[in-house]
Specification:
- This protein is mainly β.
- The chain has a single domain, classed as Porin (Beta Barrel).
- Helix content is 12%, strand content 51%.
- The protein has an eight-stranded antiparallel beta barrel.
- Strand 6 and strand 7 form a beta hairpin.
- The N and C termini lie far apart (43 Å).
Length: 202
């Protein structure tokens, strides 16, 4: 049993509705502060976004949510995004997340460490002078390492100890608070992980 086959059912319509609700709320609240969203192209220019972050992994597979560290890079590809009448942009985002899980989804005491390689399209909306929000659909390529499976049972990949490799869908929404034009606090929620970090926009 791979990670995809056990984790995806936990990402239900209720979770999607919660993500959508948060996106709408995030868009609506800061937008009342000024008319930044109505000025196409009026946002900080950068060549690449570098975002180190802390991670909280989904608990759909294991008895406890995972935790870890990661880094994302985003390269702008469309400065004035898909909707030319509002302030938006599009980037390609990719990186490496390392997430450790201490508990199994079944009885036992196995653990796992996953190396996740997300590749997503990042659609940014600049809703206020110091706020932007984004959506990120894409994929995650993962490689997991299992250990300490209980006696008489196997790890989710079907071997007492071993590896789990695959690809699964990814979807996130998030936001940035601009401390300066070049430094932001950045958070995202979604599947398969949640993150909070600092973005640098050289």
């Amino acid at each position: 049993m791979t990670r995809s086959s056990t984790r995806l059912p936990g990402f239900t319509r209720a979770a999607l509705a919660a993500l959508l609700g948060l996106a709408v709320a995030t868009l609506a609240l800061p937008a009342r502060a000024d008319d930044t969203i109505q000025r196409p192209g009026d946002h900080p220019a950068y060549n690449v976004e570098v975002e180190p972050h802390l991670l909280l992994g989904s608990d759909d597979v294991y008895a406890y949510g995972g935790w870890g560290l990661g880094v994302r890079f985003a390269i702008p590809i469309v400065d004035n995004g898909f909707v030319t009448t509002i302030n938006n942009s599009v980037a390609i985002s990719f990186g490496l997340d390392i997430v450790h899980y201490d508990g199994c989804w079944y009885n036992g005491n196995c653990s796992a460490t996953y190396f996740d390689f997300p590749v997503v399209m990042q659609w940014n909306f600049y809703v206020a002078r110091r706020w932007s929000v984004f959506g990120e659909p894409g994929i995650v390529i993962y490689h997991g390492f299992f250990s300490n499976c209980p006696d008489g049972e196997t790890c989710p990949n079907g071997r007492p100890n071993g590896n789990d490799v695959g690809v699964e869908p990814a979807i996130y929404i998030g936001g940035r608070y601009y401390l300066t034009d070049k430094v932001t606090l950045t958070a995202r929620i979604g599947f398969p992980s949640f993150s909070f970090g600092v973005s640098f926009l050289p």
